[in-house]
Amino acid sequence: MSDAPPLAGVKVLDIATFLAAPFAGTILADFGATVLKIEHPKLGDPMRAFGTPTGCGDTLAWLSEARNKQCMTLDLRHPQGAEIFRRLVAQSDVLLENFRPGTLENWGLSPDSLRQINPRLVVLRVSAYGQTGPKRGLPGFARVAHGFGGLSYLAGEPDGRPVVPGSTSLADYLSGLWGAVGVLLALRVAERTGRGQDVDIGLYESVFRLLDEIAPAYARTGFVRERMGADVPTVVPHGHWQTADGRWVAIACTSDKIFARLAKAMGKPELTRPDRFATTAQRLAARGEVKGLVANWAAGMSMEQLGAACDAAGVPWGPINSIADIFEDPQFMARGNLVRILDERAGELVLPAAVPRLTGTPAALRHAGRARGADTDQVLGNWLGLLADEIGALRRAGAI
């Protein structure tokens, strides 16, 4: 029998909307934290209407990304609602929010004031540009963050316009991931010192931090990396090629040693002669020719044949999968990356499994995203000891 979940006993209040800070809560909930999703009594989280609709009234995006959370309604701007919220804060370890900077302060619920109630409280604050700086008060979504953080500038073909770098919500997911890391770090400090703190993340920072060496390269040499499609500036061949059966594959050739293996797989070991393409510098100088050789080789065989040749030679490669391909791939099946559940409201769902994989205390998918306010009465009763008539009075007053 496994031990308790890693975050058992950790209580999290999620008053954020859409995706960035709430995704941090999803990660924490997957690993056993009690995450209480708090929404406005009438409006709810707009994420419920974002994505593919379902018959239960909430989208597939909500059902997936609000999973494992309890849901209650509470108007933080209502005096009684704010008082209930403060009582919940007193019992909690973490607060997640992603309002514009200054919003909680305007409501009289600043992190500093909340830590007068609970000194150990950790507050994750996700916003477009962070809590400081000249742009702190401006709105923004992931699309804007991709551009401001430098990612969109790199996405696309050399002669084309910047494109969406994969998921349009990438910065939201990354900010949630960084946020979860920050929360865990701050909780460790709170355990040691008894003092909470803020975790301050700007959406654009989450993508900028992942752009490998472009910052030190520009600072040292003035080099501005431009759009290169599937290419990278430092090695070649390292990109995407189409096979004879119309499939696309990725081949990663990051060293002279791996290029020698690829040349062998291509049946052209002479490409590694000292006067040809033995070194990275030689291949970079002849980028177009080297890419053309690989393109001609890939175009002459099926993806299965190319994969067999690369596997035999020890060359890293992989198919460029659609979601339909992923659902049929035995690796995804073997790893349990797709989890099937039967939801009481939406029926059968297939959701992405939690990451990372822990061998002793793995994540658990207990339920999909709940209905708005589904757990309000239970939370108020169990957390705060309110009686049914007290809860009814709060509901009539519009506080819940």
Round the mean pLDDT to the nearest integer and report it: 96
Regions with little confidence, pLDDT below 50 for 5+ residues: none
Terminus-to-terminus distance: 40 Å
Number of helices: 17
What's the CATH H-level superfamily name of the largest domain? Answer: Crotonobetainyl-coa:carnitine coa-transferase, domain 1
Classify the beta-strand content into a percent band: 5-15%
CATH architecture of the largest domain: 3-Layer(aba) Sandwich
**Helical content class:** 25-40%
Strand order of the largest sheet: 3-2-1-4-5-6
Radius of gyration: 25 Å
Topology-level CATH name of the largest domain: Rossmann fold
CATH class of the largest domain: Alpha Beta
Structural class: alpha/beta
Number of extended strands? 11
Topology as a string of helices (H) and strands (E): EHEHEHEHHEHHEHHEEHHHHEHHEEHH
What is the number of independent domains?
A: 2
Shape: elongated
Annotation keywords:
about 400 residues, alpha/beta, Rossmann fold, formyl-coa transferase, domain 3, 2 domains, six-stranded parallel sheet, three-stranded antiparallel sheet, 17 helices, 11 strands, about 15% strand
Tell me about this structure:
The protein has 400 residues and is α/β, with parallel strands linked by helices. The chain folds into 2 domains: 11-209 and 336-397, Crotonobetainyl-coa:carnitine coa-transferase, domain 1 (Rossmann fold, 3-Layer(aba) Sandwich), CATH 3.40.50.10540; 238-325, formyl-coa transferase, domain 3, CATH 3.30.1540. The chain contains 17 helices and 11 strands. The strands form 3 sheets. It has a 6-stranded parallel beta sheet, sandwiched between helices. It has a 3-stranded antiparallel beta sheet with strand order 7-8-9, with helices on one face. The model has no long low-confidence stretch (mean pLDDT 96). InterPro entries: CoA-transferase_III, CoA-Trfase_fam_III, CoA-Trfase_III_dom3_sf, CoA-Trfase_III_dom_1_sf. It comes from Paracraurococcus lichenis. This is CaiB/BaiF CoA-transferase family protein.
